[in-house]
């Protein structure tokens, strides 16, 4: 059974930093896309950042509001993905989920679509105080 386990969430003051980690296990295939989504109370789940790998290398995708503050990194050979979050603001408060898929996404419309990711973690809470 495939499992994605997130860690690294917590409570931080505005302007602070957190690093989220996601590790996948229980599968024999390779993920070619791994991403972070978040969901705040009473709001829809939204895309945050994604990586997608092909033989040509990796492609990165970011939500506009996190560009310049968040950095996604990872290694699909190790089935891990990270999200370095700097300059956090209260609007970043949410439950952050890791997602993974066996497909390579060369287009941002695919990489940012939660419905296309087959595997999900339970989430790690990030709370940013003002």
**What is the rounded distance between the termini?**
40 Å
**Per DSSP, what share of the residues sits in E-state strands of 2 or more residues?**
over 45%
Low-confidence residue ranges: none
Estimated radius of gyration: 14 Å
Mean pLDDT: 94
Q: Major sheet, described briefly? A: 7 strands, mixed
DSSP summary, beta strand count: 11
Helical proportion, percent range: under 10%
* Helix-strand makeup class: mainly beta
Number of helices: 1
Shape: globular
Order of helices and strands: EEEEEEEEEHEE
Characterization of the model:
- With 130 residues, the protein is mainly beta.
- It has one helix spanning 108-111; strands at residues 3-7, 10-13, 18-25, 33-39, 46-54, 57-62, 70-75, 80-85, 94-101, 119-120, 124-129.
- The strands form 2 sheets. Strands 2, 4, 5, 6, 9, 10 and 11 form a 7-stranded mixed sheet that branches.
- The chain is globular, with a radius of gyration of 14 Å.
- The mean pLDDT is 94.
Structural features:
130 residues, 11 strands, four-stranded antiparallel beta sheet, single chain, 1 helix, mainly beta
Brief synopsis:
By secondary structure, the chain is mostly beta strands. The chain has one helix at 108-111, and strands spanning 3-7, 10-13, 18-25, 33-39, 46-54, 57-62, 70-75, 80-85, 94-101, 119-120, 124-129.
